[in-house]
Every structure is written in C-alpha cells, then in structure tokens.
Amino acid sequence: MTTTTSFQPVLDRIAEEIAELAERGTPAAGDPADFGMAVAELDGTVYGVGDWRRPFSTQSVTKVFTLALALAGEGDTLWTHVGREPSGDPFNSLVQLEYENGIPRNPFINAGALVVTDRLHRLTGDASGSLLAFLRAESGNPDLAFDPDVAASEAAHGDRNAALAHFMASYGNITGPVPDLLREYFRQCSLEASCADLALATGFLARHGLRSDGTRLLTRSQAKQVNAVMLTCGTYDAAGDFAYRVGLPGKSGVGGAVVAVVPGRCTLCVWSPGLDSRGNSVAGVAALDRFTTITGLSVF
Predict the structure, then answer these.
(1) pTM
(2) From CA 272, how far away is CA 27, in angstroms rounded?
(3) Are 11 and 39 in contact (CB under 8 A)?
(4) Which has the least CB within 10 A, 42, 44, 229, 292?
C-alpha cells in the first residue's frame, strides 16, 4: 500500500489517467466517457472519484449477493446444484448444460445465476426482496430500488434465459415454477445502485463474512469460497485475463460496473459503461489494474 493514509490521492490519480484512455469500448447503454470509482474500508469509510454516487443498472453484479445469501441459507448443499468451474463459454450458453445433466458450471453464468436465484427463492419466498433488503442494509442506502422498466426490458428479451431455466427444470435442477423464477431474476438484474453503494455492500467479503453491523453472514470458509469463485469466474470468459491484470476477486456486469475485493483490507466498485467484446468495462478493468499496481494490494 502507498504511504498515504487515504485512498483519495490514489483514486484522483487513477481518474486522471483514465480520462486519457483512448479506447473506452462500446456501451450497452450510456456514455463511455462516464466514469466513477469508490473504495470502502472495513469500517465503512468510503472514498470516491468521478460519478461515484451516480446510480446505474447493476445487472450481473447482483449475482455476488444472491450467491452469498443462498450459501448462507443452504450451506454446501448449494454446490450440488451449481458448480465452481470457469465455463470458457459465453455467459448465456446452453451448450454445457446438456452433457453435464443440467448442472451449470458456476454461479455467475446465467444458468448458474438462475439456479442460485431459484434456491434463494425456495429458502425465502422472495429472492429479489431478500436481495434488496440486504443491499439496503449493507450500503446504508434505504432508497435502493429495482427499475421496473429495465426489468420489463430484460423480460422482453429473455428467451435465452427462459430456455436455460426450462432446460434445467427438465433435469430437476429448478424447483419452482419457471415464470416465477424469471420474474425474480429479471428484477434482481434491474437494481440501480452507485459505486459507493456497491463498494459498501460488498464489504462482508473483505471482512471474511461479517456484515456491516458485526453479525456473521458467511463463515470465513464460505467467504473464501465466494471470493475464489469471483476470481476464477466473475468476469465472464475473461476471468484469466482479469486475474492476470488486476489480481483481485471481481464481478462485472454489462451495465459497466465491476466490484472487487481486497480481503482483510477494502472493497472497490468502478463503473464506466463502455464494454469490451466479452462484456467487461474497458475503463473499469483499466482502473482496477492501476489501483493494484499503485497500491500493491492484491491476493498474489
């Protein structure tokens, strides 16, 4: 870590460098020049730069939190329904499910996230509501909400996800009605939050499973498991390159956000909507690369 006692100078320096980045990728929505970044320490102190308090569509970043909630409620039984291996295929691929008997490779591809949401809904009766309550509590932001327009758009273009869910249901790996599952899944992907919100909400993974109020969500071993799966599977089929460049557990979403964890030290969220060909934020990954280079904070 740098000799400074604050992350703010580091963030300011990164923002200046990212502003000079020539290639910003292609956004699914928004302006690729937009950029925000936040770092949250274990005690809830937050530093930020750019659009770090501006809400955006979190999309697949929420898969980290549904995984944690389902693992907390179900324990190791969860891993009999979803694997922990990188897929090597696009996030919405149907290919592997047939020859692996309806068990998705990991919780962060769409098939795996659908299974996790199904398990969480079975445990709570309200998967998206449980997610929202958790994120409001951990971020300290009671105004966090789902965007019904985004959820409706996801549903309107959700044929592939419906196919994945029905296919897994045919193997008995989806327990509830598929229409109910899809509704919950599309809602969770429509959550709007800021870099500050997500950096704070991810803090339990840096605190080895402890929530912001000191109560335990996950065992230390379970927190390690989630971080490990984030490192190996959290950035679609670019996880190897992300581990090489950044060296932290991370999870990205096509809204342009990436959350990352420095166990025992801090959590980060960076947002910029310009995406590379594999669905990860170009400026976001570059910013995290610079953060670990400047600070020396990495799991390696």
Answers:
(1) 0.95
(2) 9
(3) yes
(4) 44
Tens of each residue's pLDDT in the chain, 300 residues:
333 469 999 999 999 999 999 889 998 878 989 999 999 999 999 999 999 999 999 999 999 999 999 999 999 999 999 999 987 666 556 778 888 899 999 999 999 999 999 999 999 999 999 999 999 999 999 999 999 999 999 999 999 999 999 999 999 999 999 999 999 999 999 999 999 999 999 999 999 999 999 999 999 999 999 999 999 999 988 999 999 999 999 999 999 999 999 999 999 999 999 999 989 999 999 999 999 999 999 999
From the list 182, 179, 175, the residue with the least C-alpha distance to 161 is 182
The Cα–Cα gap between 63 and 98 comes to 23
Indicate the DSSP class of residue 281.
B
Amino acid identity at 118: D
Residue 22: both structure tokens together: 């020539």
| E strand residue ranges, the chain | 26-27, 36-41, 46-50, 56-57, 145-146, 191-193, 250-252, 257-262, 266-271, 274-275
271: closest CA among 92, 61, 65, 63?
Answer: 61
Give, in degrees to the nearest 5, the angle at Cα 245 between 242 and 247: 75
189-198: burial string, b at 16+ Cβ within 10 Å, e else: bbbbbbbbbb
